[in-house]
Amino acid sequence: MSLAVVLLAAIAATAGSATSASSSLKISALTSDRTAFETVLAAYKKANPNVDLKVTYADVTPYQSTLRTQLAAGTAADVMEVWPGNGNPGAIQVLAPYGYLADLSKQPFAKREPAGIKSVTHVNGKLYTVPLGLSGLGPIYNLTVLKKLGASPPTTWKQVLALCAKAKANGIVAYALGVQDDWVTQLVPYALVPTTVYARTPNFDALQRAGKASFSKSGWVTAENLYDQMSKAGCFEDSPLSTNYASTQTMLATDKAAGLVQGSWAFSDVKKQAAKGTLFKMYPLPATNNPRQTRMAGAPSAAFAVNAKSDNPEAMKFINFLASPVAQTAFAKASGNLPAYASSTYKPDPSLATFVTYLRAGKTNPFMDQLWPNPKVQAAHLKGLQSFFAGKESMSNVLGAMDSAYKGH
């Protein structure tokens, strides 16, 4: 056999090997982000056709309960959805100290990280997560339903109660509430607390850490009592404890509810179910009768981290991709969120115009649990609120339990 034939055979063998070569990447993510996240996966797959993406989805509660177990057992995915900051079992400040998460500080994308999100993406000066979105939180209104009711998005607390009365009189739910899923129970207070707490006490978190402020002696009392007022005023459906998150999205999409207090991650599934031409928009949930005092909650969300025990090189390649304009724009367009990292190819969805205005005006606060010292506070809040809706707990007891959990009791 000639040398030329040998070389050609070698080249052909090498080319065939490269063409057939493939790798796989295991990812775990939340069901609530699935619709938007799959647009990101499609973009990655298009650029990396030989990568087999194996994605497992789960709802919030089972996801949180198994994530740490999997990490400890060494069975967790290569890349995992986590929570920025602190406050729940899947948050980076809970997981990173145990060595479960890979340090991303020296990855190429780290230099582009926006300064505004660093307080909840770092632990002890090290970067551990890449958020795909910047989520607003507040009432998402079905503008078609509001028009039928002859109503506008409320800008005062009196108008909130008036909308509840008008909607109920017309056989429509003012604000769909699916507290069968325990994580949903906290969202109405989260929408109110920026106004009832932080508008008057911007340094509340620092005071609380210093032992000079508490849930039960602050604007948290006002927020939870307003939540109670909404319940008594018939703002929600008759049995919120029998309604889950998915059902509330359907209620809003199919004109059975005027509003839904949720994060902007809910937009994608709501719009997917709605009739063509139905318009949705997020607004603040006012807690006073002075619109100038109103603030909104907004924070990084849909964040991903790399399993520290993973030796899969595809994991770091994927996490860098998540910070790219391609991934950030794809997720933002599909989810209704804003990109967490700057993207020149993204134009804010009109549904989020009001949130963008508040964000630019500096009138937003992070989701409350992201700054709490341990997951027990959120657990006490969720358990207490479900008991409240079951008629077994008072709001004052809920806040007292949160204070005890905050102190580590």
* Annotated CATH architecture of the largest domain: 3-Layer(aba) Sandwich
The whole-angstrom Rg is 23 Å
Strand content: 15-25%
Q: Main beta sheet, described?
A: 10 strands, mixed
Q: Distance N terminus to C terminus?
A: 81 Å
What's the overall average pLDDT, rounded? Answer: 92
- Count of beta strands: 12
CATH H-level homologous superfamily name of the largest domain: Periplasmic binding protein-like II
Domain count: 2
How large is the count of helical segments?
17
Large-scale geometry: globular
The CATH topology of the largest domain is D-Maltodextrin-Binding Protein, domain 2
- CATH C-level name of the largest domain: Alpha Beta
Helix content range: 40-55%
Low-pLDDT parts are 1-20
Order of helices and strands: HEHEHEHHEEEHHEHHHHEHEEHHEHEHH
Structural class: alpha/beta
What does this structure look like?
- The protein folds into 2 domains: 22-134 and 300-347, D-Maltodextrin-Binding Protein, domain 2; 136-298 and 364-406, Periplasmic binding protein-like II (D-Maltodextrin-Binding Protein, domain 2, 3-Layer(aba) Sandwich).
- The protein has 17 helices and 12 strands.
- It has helices at 3-20, 34-47, 60-73, 92-95, 118-121, 143-149, 157-169, 187-198, 204-209, 219-232, 245-253, 267-273, 313-322, 325-335, 353-360, 375-389, 395-406, and strands at residues 23-30, 51-58, 79-82, 122-123, 126-127, 130-142, 173-176, 257-263, 280-282, 296-306, 338-339, 364-365.
- Strands 1, 2, 3, 6, 7, 8, 9, 10, 11 and 12 form a 10-stranded mixed β-sheet that branches. The chain has a two-stranded antiparallel ribbon with strand order 4-5.
- Helix 8 crosses helix 10 (219-232) and helix 11 (245-253) packs across helix 12.
- The longest helix is centred in the first third of the chain and has 18 residues, at 3-20.
- It is globular.
- Residues 1-20 have low confidence and may be disordered.
